[in-house]
Amino acid sequence: MLDMVRLSPRPLFPPGGVDLYRQIALLSEMAEGAEVLSVGSGTGVTLEYFVQEHGAHGSGVEADGWVVEAAEARARAQGLSARIQFQKAEPDSLPYRDEIFDVVVGELGFAARCDPVDAVREMVRVTKPLGRIVLVRLVWKAPVEPARQTALTRRLGARPLMLVEWKRMLRDMGVVGVHIEDWSDTETSFRPRVDKPFPDFSEIFTTWEKLVILRRAWSRWGWRGMRWILEREWEIHRLLSHERILGLVLLTGRKAAEAAEAEAPDVEEEEADEPVAVAAPKPGPGGAPVAGGKGSKKEGPGLDAGTSGLPLFRGTDDD
Asked: Bridge-partner residues for 75, per DSSP?
């Protein structure tokens, strides 16, 4: 699914769209000059949004070299090379020093090829104390047998888990004040009108764009790649449109600091097993989100915007 988005000739937001990422910026109190890391950043569409709309400095990590090259080319074309940089690295071994990012976002495919526990641990490591951890996750809405889970993870390019597993993982890693929102396509009193969170490729791509995707798949992976793209499109459409066993959830919290924990050991967290459905905030003048709008939930102090420019990379043992 994510490969088809990346091969598209038209820039596309991941599932959830710009509304989801506007909500992420609001909940994380993203400020001018904030250092933001996107793990599983793809071609950099979401980082471009954070940089252009909120004045952040963006860093992206991807495991595939060709995706990193495509992201760098997009940043150059947008004139954003000085404010966005990308690295080829695995999510469970981030090439950054400890505690340097204000906001770290685990994108949809960030743990598809590694242990999610190791990836989340690395995200927490590079986040400043009281900085924000954000996960955009697929969750199973119903039990799925292990063999099928493995097959679907490979087809989706993302690793779904049960919501309770993601919540427990964050808490075990020292993330407090966990806040959860359901961004699936279920209408609620909080969200009377919703768009499809998952792209229906038969609808969003024109015939010409589908041909471009197939040509790029053939150029990169041969005839086997073209067949693979078509098979995945059919499987994903059936999985999301008919079986509806997957949901899209936003989880966010802050990295605990020892002093903060000592002063306030009982941090209020979301205890319900089901995610809370919340409306995306309406943009204010100039497209900026309105702080304190419906569905927002703020916790802790604002971001430390003292770090500017590119973050320091992880050094050798002699540094």
From this structure: none
